[in-house]
Amino acid sequence: MSTYKVGNGQQQIKFAADIDTFGLAASRAITVNLATNDPAVTVGHSLDATGDIPRKEIGTADSLAGKRLAILTKIDLVGDEDARKKESKRLTAKYFLDNGAAGYKVFDDPEKTISDDFFSVILYKEIDLIGQP
Amino acid sequence: MKKLFINILLVILGITTHSQVLNNSVKLKDLAVPNSPAFIIADITPSLTESPNTPKEFALGIAQSFQNSSSGFPENYTIEFAPYWWFNGSKRSIYELLGLKTTKDANGKTQVIKENPFSGLKFTGLSMAFIHKDLIPDNVDSAQKIFSAGLRTTIIKVHAKSYSKDLAAKIDEWHRAALDELENSPIIEQIARETDPAKKERLKKSLFTSTQTADEVKSINDIINRKPLFSWDIATAYALYGIGDSVWQSGRYSAWTTMSTYIPLVFDEENSYKNYFNLNISVRYTLDNYYKNEKSEIVKNNSLDIGGKAALEFNALSIGIESLYRYNNNVANSQNRTVGIINYKVGDNLYVQGAFGKNFNVPDKLVVFFGIKWGFGSETIKLP
């Protein structure tokens, strides 16, 4: 389980995602409060098929503390089976958080789920955002 | 039943006739630039090939293969990689893969400008093999240590103008469909709230069933398979033979080049990508320091193969002419031939083929064959 100390205060937390793949990629990032049934809030999404989410402010430290940031990327691969198999194993992603109490932090260990025919891959990452004790 | 029997008979006849005429001869497709020249020059088709993503992985892989070997030389280690991506990994994207030149708009969204005809250079691939194999055709049955290395690249590849425009539009449609799917369903929230890892996985896998994005991918694959107006590929490879414990000798050297052009014959939207005039020229040069000649002597031999094809390719029908000339040590070889070939697509993956022409092997000898050929799929797209 990955965590990031956002701390307390009104400073804006910044987030970005860099998807490293030759496939078609689309990403969406949400924050969800696990302690309540409040609906999730979309805090970012990709603008094109790179799947990257450009660096953006996702909320103040106070508003994010205690929430879970979840980022999911759907990737569809082109090419023959051998090429798709290779790329599905190789592809990866990096997630960047900044301006919180923990400063600049990179997460590069998304969970990967590959379809049996190697046509599709799901990358998923959860980061729990922690306030100052 | 009778129809099936006739079909089987035709296939057997076709294969037999084809085999009698063309076996043991160089084929035009053998001259085409190979994807992994280091493997071709060493006569191997490895089932497991390493693809290091960083220089560190490359160095570690080589070191481990030496370490794990009892003879001090890797037993069977093959590698393939494109060095450009070692240092520009963050640039990997579908746009780069498809050779599209892009820019970012004010919001950071990728905009396609045009096709980059030289994008293939970024995918220049290196291949290497460390194997034990008997590549010296003498009477001694002893495997040599073989090290081979090769390079392959596409110097230029250019499609019709609509290629980049159509690709950009379809990629955008795919992204919109995929994003809608993620935006309009609560699936990410469900995954985020789920505590059971097995249920989390099931939820993720439910995203594999989208038909909308699958349709878009099919359209994108169809565009990728459009033939280029012009392409030029080259490859080269060298093999070194380790004889005994300490003697290393130059074994083989090869170079390949292929130039192709596909000129559309029809310009209406539906058929413009299915009807072509195709002109294709391939040249292969091989220097073999351990070649067994007709007198069973091991000699140095160089061969130059020049092959070409001109064909009219329609939707289901293709009519063309193929020529192949081979020179051994600058002397014209007996396998030279010129044949006319006709292919007709009977159904999905089923073709009727016929050929008629002149084989220069024996004066006045004709090449004739007729057969049925099964294939799977249409074309394949290779990734680096």
Overall description:
The complex is a heterodimer of chains A (133) and B (384). Chain A has 133 residues and is mainly β. Chain A contains two helices and ten strands. Chain A has helices spanning 61-64, 81-90; strands at residues 2-5, 12-20, 24-32, 41-45, 53-60, 68-76, 92-100, 103-107, 111-114, 120-130. In chain A, the strands form two sheets. In chain A, strands 1, 3, 4, 6, 9 and 10 form a six-stranded mixed β-sheet that branches. In chain A, strand 3 (24-32) and strand 4 (41-45) form a beta hairpin. The mean pLDDT of chain A is 94. Helices cover 27% and strands 39% of the residues of chain B. Chain B contains ten helices and 14 strands. In chain B, strands 1, 4, 5, 6, 7, 8, 9, 10, 11, 12, 13 and 14 form a twelve-stranded antiparallel β-sheet that branches. In chain B, strand 9 and strand 10 form a beta hairpin. The two termini of chain B are 46 Å apart. The interface between A and B is large, with 43 and 46 residues.
Compact summary:
The complex is a heterodimer of chains A (about 130) and B (about 375). Chain A contains two helices and ten strands; from the N terminus they run βββββαβαββββ.
Shape of chain B: globular
Number of strands of chain B: 14
- Number of H/I helices of chain B: 10
Given as residue ranges, the uncertain stretches of chain A (5+ residues, pLDDT < 50) are none
> Can you tell me the overall shape of chain A?
elongated
Largest interface: A-B, 43 and 46 residues
Instruction: Characterize the quaternary organization of these chains.
Output: heterodimer
On the 0 to 100 scale, the average pLDDT of chain A is 94
Please indicate the percent range of residues of chain A in DSSP E strands (runs of 2 or more). over 45%
Helix and strand sequence of chain A: EEEEEHEHEEEE
Number of β-strand runs of chain A: 10
- Give the termini distance of chain B in whole angstroms: 46 Å
Q: Which structural category do the helix and sheet elements of chain A fall into?
A: mainly beta
